[in-house]
Q: What sequence folds into this?
């Protein structure tokens, strides 16, 4: 994997079996521009090529304490025509879809603002941790726009249609405590350091399991969310039976019977 290149808008740190990806445009409150989205797409593509599960999880955060991602770069967007905007929207949706379908779990660690595209990036992760100063929102209508990186679709699935419509129609910001009550985020921490430490602990707990089984569980849950319960159960049954052909399943069950720690291979 070519993840150690010199990124212009990202920092990538390797810790045990997971990566920390830091959005690194602090002077612009980590706002998303074409360069940043393109680099993030390239990095996620490299991670997805990893067939050996050398990377078993991702921690995604923003540089500094003011913002996770404050939104899209409005200066870059202001002169775009509809064709340019379509290209930008397509790129943003590619990145959020890649985050959502990445075979390894991704935890968004939000510090400060996660607005517009920042909220959309966070929602594409498996779940969201936030500091007490976390602020979430889809304020695009205040600029004569609508969310373009998946916000109109994912927000309703996370918090329900009515709450999502109110947030998007008003463009209002939601602070961390309200976001927790709505179901938008999972946990709140006093400081960024505590949040990163706990996210690392969560990933460590996950990476102690079969990375292959975790990837299949993620796939089934993502694909099943829009199915009826009957269709979803059929999907689960197919994948449950298929995983019995995996090396990890044999190793995990043998280790349990032999009362030892399993040595999973990710296949």
A:
């Amino acid at each position: 994997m070519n993840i150690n290149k010199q990124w212009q808008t990202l920092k990538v740190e390797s810790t045990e079996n997971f990566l920390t990806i830091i959005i690194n445009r602090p002077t612009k409150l980590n706002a998303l521009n074409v360069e940043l989205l393109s680099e993030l797409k390239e990095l996620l593509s490299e991670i997805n090529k990893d067939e050996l599960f050398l990377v078993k999880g991702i921690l995604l955060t923003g540089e500094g304490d003011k913002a996770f991602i404050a939104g899209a770069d409005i200066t870059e967007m202001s002169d775009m025509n509809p064709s340019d905007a379509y290209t930008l929207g397509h790129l943003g949706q590619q990145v959020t879809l890649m985050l959502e379908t990445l075979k390894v779990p991704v935890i968004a660690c939000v510090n400060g603002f996660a607005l517009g595209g920042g909220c959309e990036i966070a929602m594409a992760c498996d779940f969201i941790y936030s500091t007490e100063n976390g602020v979430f929102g889809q304020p695009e209508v205040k600029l004569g726009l609508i969310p373009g990186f998946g916000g109109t679709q994912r927000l309703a699935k996370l918090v329900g249609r009515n709450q999502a419509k109110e947030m998007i129609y008003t463009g209002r910001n939601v602070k961390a405590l309200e976001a927790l009550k709505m179901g938008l985020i999972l946990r709140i921490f006093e400081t960024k350091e505590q949040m990163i430490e706990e996210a690392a602990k969560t990933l460590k707990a996950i990476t102690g399991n079969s990375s292959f089984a975790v990837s299949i569980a993620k796939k089934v849950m993502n694909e099943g969310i829009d199915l009826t319960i009957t269709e979803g159960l059929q999907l689960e049954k197919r994948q449950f039976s298929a995983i019995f052909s995996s090396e990890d399943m044999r190793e995990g069950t043998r280790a349990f019977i032999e009362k030892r720690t399993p040595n999973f291979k990710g296949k």
